[in-house]
Amino acid sequence: MNSTSSQNTRINLRRCAKTFGNTQVLKPVTLDIQAGETVVLLGPSGCGKTTLLRIISGLEAPDHGSAILFNDEDVTSRPIEKRQVGMVFQSYALFPNMTVRQNVGYGLTTGQGDERLTKADRDTRIETMLKMMRIQDLADRSIDQLSGGQRQRVALARAIAPRPKVLLLDEPLTALDATLRDDLRMEINALLRDLGITAIYVTHDQSEAMALGDRIVVMSEGTIEQIGTPEEIYHQPNNMFVATFIGATNALSGHWGHKGFVPRGMEVPVAALRMAAQGGNLMCFRPEDVDLIEDGDQASGALKGIARTIAFVGSCHRVIVELPGNQTVTLESAWCHPPHPGDPVLFKIQENGVLPVWSNEA
User: Could you tell me the keywords of this UniProt record (predicted)?
Assistant: First the structure.
């Protein structure tokens, strides 16, 4: 672990819930976060992810019966200033009357962290943070002289400077433009790996979650839908919500037979060897999990449709295909000769392309 971080901290949440008035916005959550792990809380607005983050930080008190443990120490009733957590917000929350240097060093002068520092040690720590975040040339500027990306770097440096036990990030990149957001996402990822600090990151952005998380906690309506690595969440979703919330998903209506799935409007089963999804009326697969058939021979288990919309998106062509039975699917592939609207399209779903979820929704 890099010397800039505090001891690795393991977090255990036990039956953490939150009720406002008569509404339980967060149903009891039990979650174990390993020391040095980056866990992303992912879900749509109102799913409870920020409430859970605030409970972990100490900004929000959980319902009676909840328990929050840092390295087996119960901190449930401990206020935020006693939990040694660093927080980064979407709004930056910087002090406009202070310079960049003063903002970064703020937590070191207010007793945050687990150590007492001399002035010389504080100055050294501040310089280390400025260099780490590549803002040393901005040290004497005021906050209103900084761009959004520069302000977020200052906020990160300020949160990390006291060497917190846990770093909590609440949608820190949402206010930035797309290009800057992508750049900072990669920087944050590298920073967290280098520090080895336990981090919890809240976002509604699936790409952000996939890029940053060792594990992702997918939430909906106050409950956890699935916990897993980015690969597990993407390729082995627990249910239809996860399958459709994480990445693009095609859902074909039809029925399962003993030889496979028969889409509505067709008589021939689709060859799909992953049969864990049997049941219900839908079969789901990702747009990229297809093999194109360009020689005109309709192989066994192939689907044939008509191209309706074609878009070049850089790494591939995205084609919306109309199938029999008034169904449409989206395909993504690096076509050698992309179709034109009205052209026939022949494709097969890859051997392991069928997602292991099912639904009775037609």
Answer: ATP-binding, Nucleotide-binding, Transport
Give the pLDDT band (50/70/90) at residue 362: very low
Domains of the chain: 11-244 (3.40.50.300), 250-355 (2.40.50.140)
Amino acid letter, 143: I
Report phi then psi at 228, rounded to 5: -175, 175
Give a three-class secondary structure readout of 289-335.
CEEECCCCCCCCCCEEEEEEEEEECCCCEEEEEEECCCEEEEEEECC
Q: Enter the tokens of residue 270.
A: 């689709």
In this predicted structure, the answer to whether residue 278 has a pLDDT above a threshold of 90 is no
263 vs 282: CA distance, rounded Å? 8
Contact 302, 318 (CB under 8 A): no
pLDDT at position 24 over 70: yes
Residue 178 pLDDT greater than 50, yes or no: yes
**Rounded (5°) CA angle 285-278-344:** 40
Tell me the angle at which helices 178-195 and 148-160 cross, rounded to the nearest 10 degrees: 20
- Say yes or no to pLDDT of 6 above 90: no
Inter-residue contact 355 to 285 (CB < 8 Å):
yes
**Segment 226-273, tens digit of pLDDT:** 999 999 999 999 999 999 999 999 998 988 777 778 888 877 677 554
CA distance 317 to 343: 15
Cα(278)–Cα(257) distance, rounded to whole angstroms?
Answer: 9
| Residue type at 239 in one-letter notation | N
Residue 99, exposed/middle/buried by CB under 10 A (0-12, 13-18, 19+)?
middle
Considering the entire predicted model, what is its pTM? Answer: 0.88
For 47-91, give the DSSP string. SSHHHHHHHHHTSSPPPTT-EEEETTEE-TT--GGGTTEEEEETT
